[in-house]
């Protein structure tokens, strides 16, 4: 039987070509994902380890236990010069240098502040884990180096002159001497970074002290011994370079783990679709080989031997395709890791990693999926009676059965259960759990489609066939052929239905999310521009200089630090001060000295002069100043604090709008307050709350409770009440600008930018640009996911092509007879093309219908106030792709049918 099986494979190998391609593509995706993730992970590790292992030990300050006055954990206090000197004096240390870290405002090519927050600014000594990947590190006070990510975002290169603002907002020019690749270190890569000479960084940031000390050990001293010796000075845990790198690599590796899981999910979808194709192929082949199998039974083959023979075929086909898939996946994974590493900042230097897991998983997935998909056809093969060998014709048509009433009932029940689950998901509050319910509903609906597939095919073809029958003989024959084997057609199109459902569903979710966000922006912020100050959440690292050094030296002379104290110093002995202290420092919250800042929170504000210039422009209709503060001692609503805002120059409910949970915006006025739902905490309309404020406690009646949204957060009071309660807040955190009706958008833009020209740290955001950015982000996400799901579509098209090819082989004599009766070659090709297009349109049509339904349900389950949107343009493209896929699927089968000799086909059995 083994020889017979292998001989049959060699003889009919052309029948398995598309099946092999389907398995190959699925395995290629799975193996490629594993190779991609392993290589990218190695690249991450190499990027981090390469910098960390260039030094022998790394000391990082630790935060003292306890909380600050606002209840937040204390920040780490930087090491002082005395600590660095004592480390250098250790016999185990050959050299050591500290890293000074703060933030500096870098101006871009247009003279505006770069980034939402200022990039990190560091000063490096000669002993550092970082080095220049291009050019040299700065040595003079007019030199600077940029992170490679910052260079690519700003366009600045080595040799260019850049402008940086110091803490007094005075501009200084620097020459770019080099670029530094910080790899995946989030402290420097994501927000950007600049590197100054060690002395210059203190002038440009107001920072002092060392956020990190890098150590080189003496000859003969192990890294562990050097780290232990340094720890006796710092009083903190000190890691070797390798340990530091491993910790960072582990933290960064979570990104590749998430990416690996996401991509493998698409691989599972691809393999599921491939499994449907494999099942259909073997089902058709078994049906066509009834006489062959019956003859084997006549010569003594047992049912078990027939069963094992079919499974052996599937095993050989699956293993062969899986080997090719693993090889292709290795190449795809390497290519993906190269481009992925460049995009994610790891570079493309890591060697290709092909782990045994990637190879074994690829081989097992492809082979086992093929064997599993062939189980039902193999079982059917054992039921072929020996007498079938005496029949003159034994085809799949003989196995085609009608759709029994039990099948209909089961399918309808599946659809009813799916509808009930969708209803349940919509009755729940918007929550991620609702998404799981919708997913369950979709899976149950797919069961219904599979069960009722033959019935759906017959019904849809009859409807579509009405106009097609009038087109010509080829179309009429194609319609009839499509319903001859509805079960086979349904199995072929279900693979395409899966892909079409997923792509359509995500496109509906994407379009609905975009429409919802656009509506929220239009309703909540009916403005054209938003102006704000660049915000730096981190203050500079500072120490108190000589007092700290003296305290540290005295502490070391007396022995080991006492419990609760370290050589870093303590707040009590004045050894070091927290962020925002020291002359020339950045104020707490990140605003540079001289910039408008909220005295209560340290939040950077838009200078009043900017507001006055904008208000004086005849091109602008309204300039709304959003002034806000934060009450950290407010506890009436069972919260740690309360943000309070007021909108100067706005009419609430007209210029600034929001959906209410309770109450009406028309009732808002002096002595009233609006609360967002998350802060209301059971407080309702008519209740009174008291705001503790510098201008005196303020008793306010709740006018309305607002839905949580993009516009408001916390409490909103009138400008009159805000001025009385918080007289020191005279500038707004944001300015919302409405252009006058009928003005030229270009002139409005010019007027807005002219008003902020003298304030480089003031940033301008066009609401239209904000919408475009969100739209572009959603489009990128959609096309990325669509490309991943496109693999499932390709596999499904292979399945339809395979079904057509096997059908053509089965209908060889029939096609020859049609030719003999006068059907031209072109008409025969057209008949098969229309038949394939019908299959693709049915599969795509059912998928689009399910995708629209479950896309809406999924979006509504997780996003409150969803604006349902059907992306008609994208769906039209899907339909066009389905037609094209049908035409492509029919190319080879139609060519083969048209090229067959009429006399030879009629003479064959």
Automatic annotation (TrEMBL):
Transmembrane regions listed in the UniProt entry: 261-287, 315-337, 357-376, 408-428, 434-461, 489-509, 780-809, 836-863, 875-894
Organism expressing this protein natively: Nocardiopsis metallicus
GO molecular function: transmembrane transporter activity
CC annotations in GO: plasma membrane
Record domain MacB-like periplasmic core: where: 18-232, 490-752
Localization of this protein: Cell membrane
Biased composition (Low complexity): 536-548
Keywords of the record: Cell membrane, Membrane, Transmembrane, Transmembrane helix
Source domain of life: Bacteria
Similarity remark: Belongs to the ABC-4 integral membrane protein family.
Protein name, as recorded: Putative ABC transport system permease protein
InterPro entries: ABC3_permease_C, MacB_PCD, Macrolide_Exporter_MacB
Every ABC3 transporter permease C-terminal domain range: 265-384, 788-901
Cleavable signal peptide: none
Flavoprotein is among the record's keywords: no
Segments of this protein annotated with the region Disordered: 536-588
Record has Transmembrane helix as a keyword: yes
Comp. bias (Acidic residues): 549-565
Topology term for the membrane: Multi-pass membrane protein
Main location: membrane
């Amino acid at each position: 039987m083994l020889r017979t099986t292998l001989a049959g494979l060699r003889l009919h190998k052309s029948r398995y070509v598309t099946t092999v391609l389907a398995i190959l593509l699925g395995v290629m995706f799975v193996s490629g994902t594993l190779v991609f993730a392993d290589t990218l992970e190695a690249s991450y590790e190499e990027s981090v380890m390469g910098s960390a292992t260039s030094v022998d030990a790394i000391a990082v300050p630790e935060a003292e236990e306890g909380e600050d006055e606002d209840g937040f954990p204390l920040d780490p206090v930087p090491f002082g010069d005395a600590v660095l000197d004592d480390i250098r004096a250790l016999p185990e240390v050959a050299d050591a240098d500290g890293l000074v870290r703060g933030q500096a405002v870098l101006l871009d090519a247009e003279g505006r502040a770069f980034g939402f927050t200022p990039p990190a600014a560091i000063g490096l000594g000669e002993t550092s884990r970082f080095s220049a990947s291009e050019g040299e590190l700065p040595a003079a006070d007019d030199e600077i180096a940029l992170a490679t990510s910052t260079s690519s975002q700003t366009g600045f290169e080595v040799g260019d002159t850049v402008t940086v603002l110091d803490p007094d907002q005075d501009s200084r020019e620097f020459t770019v001497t080099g670029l530094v690749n910080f790899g995946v270190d989030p402290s420097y890569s994501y927000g950007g970074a600049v590197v100054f000479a060690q002395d210059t960084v203190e002038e440009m940031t107001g920072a002092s002290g060392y956020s990190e000390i890098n150590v080189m050990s003496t000859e003969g001293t192990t890294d562990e011994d050097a780290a232990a010796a340094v720890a006796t000075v710092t009083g903190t845990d000190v890691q070797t370079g390798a340990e530091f790198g491993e910790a960072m690599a582990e933290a960064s590796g979570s990104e590749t783990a998430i990416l690996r899981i996401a991509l493998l999910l698409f691989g599972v979808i691809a393999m599921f679709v491939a499994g449907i194709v494999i099942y259909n192929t073997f089902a058709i082949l078994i049906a066509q080989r009834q006489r062959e199998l019956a003859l084997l039974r006549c010569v003594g083959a047992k049912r078990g031997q027939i069963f094992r023979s079919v499974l052996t075929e599937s095993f050989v086909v699956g293993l062969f395709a899986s080997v090719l898939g693993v090889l292709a996946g290795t190449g795809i994974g390497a290519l993906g890791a190269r481009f992925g590493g460049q995009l994610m900042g790891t570079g493309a230097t890591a060697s290709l990693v092909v782990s045994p897991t990637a190879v074994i998983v690829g081989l097992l997935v492809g082979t086992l999926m093929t064997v599993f998909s062939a189980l039902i056809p193999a079982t059917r093969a054992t039921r072929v009676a020996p007498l079938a060998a005496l029949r003159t014709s034994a085809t799949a048509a003989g196995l085609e059965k009608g759709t029994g009433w039990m099948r209909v009932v089961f399918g309808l029940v599946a659809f009813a259960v799916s509808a009930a689950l969708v209803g349940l998901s919509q009755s729940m509050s918007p929550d991620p759990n609702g998404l799981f319910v919708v997913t369950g509903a979709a899976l149950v609906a797919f069961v219904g489609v599979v069960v009722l597939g033959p019935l759906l095919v017959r019904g849809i073809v009859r409807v579509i066939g009405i106009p097609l029958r009038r087109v010509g003989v080829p179309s009429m024959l194609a319609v009839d052929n499509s319903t001859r084997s509805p079960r086979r057609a349904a199995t072929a199109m279900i693979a395409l239905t899966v892909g079409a459902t997923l792509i359509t569903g995500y496109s509906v979710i994407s379009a609905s999310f975009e429409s919802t966000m656009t509506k929220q922006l239009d309703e909540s912020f009916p403005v054209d521009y938003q102006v704000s100050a660049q915000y730096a959440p981190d203050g500079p690292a500072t120490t108190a200089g000589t007092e700290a050094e003296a305290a540290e030296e005295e502490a070391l002379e007396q022995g080991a630090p006492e419990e609760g104290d370290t050589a870093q110093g303590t707040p009590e002995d004045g050894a070091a001060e927290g962020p925002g202290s020291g002359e020339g420092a950045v104020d707490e919250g990140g605003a540079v000295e001289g910039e408008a800042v909220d005295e209560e929170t340290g939040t950077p504000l838009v200078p009043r002069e900017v507001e006055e210039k904008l208000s004086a422009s005849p091109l602008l209709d309204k300039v709304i100043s959003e002034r806000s503060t934060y009450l950290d001692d407010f506890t009436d609503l069972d919260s740690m604090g309360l943000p309070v805002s007021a909108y100067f120059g706005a009419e609430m409910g007209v210029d600034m709008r929001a959906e209410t949970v309770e109450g009406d915006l028309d009732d808002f006025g002096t002595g009233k307050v609006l609360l967002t739902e998350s802060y209301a905490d059971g407080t309702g309309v008519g209740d009174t709350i008291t705001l503790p404020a510098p201008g005196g406690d303020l008793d306010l009646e709740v006018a309305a409770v607002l839905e949580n949204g993009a516009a408001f957060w916390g409490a909103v009071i009138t400008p009159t009440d805000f001025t009385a309660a918080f007289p020191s807040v005279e500038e707004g955190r944001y300015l919302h600008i409405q252009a006058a009706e009928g003005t030229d958008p270009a002139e409005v833009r010019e007027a807005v930018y002219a008003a902020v020209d003298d304030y480089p740290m003031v940033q301008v955001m066009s609401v239209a640009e904000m919408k475009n950015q969100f739209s572009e982000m959603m489009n990128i996400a959609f096309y990325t996911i669509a490309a991943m799901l496109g693999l499932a579509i390709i596999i499904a098209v292979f399945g339809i092509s395979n079904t057509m090819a096997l059908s053509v082989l089965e209908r060889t004599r029939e096609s020859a007879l049609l030719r003999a009766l006068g059907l031209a070659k072109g008409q025969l090709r057209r008949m098969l093309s229309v038949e394939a297009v019908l299959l693709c349109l049915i599969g795509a049509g059912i998928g689009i219908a399910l995708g629209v339904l479950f896309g809406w349900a999924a979006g509504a389950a997780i996003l409150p106030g969803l604006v349902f949107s059907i992306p008609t343009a994208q769906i039209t493209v899907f339909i066009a792709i389905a037609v094209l896929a049908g035409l492509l699927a029919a190319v080879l089968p139609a060519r083969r049918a048209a090229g067959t000799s009429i006399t030879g086909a009629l003479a064959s059995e």
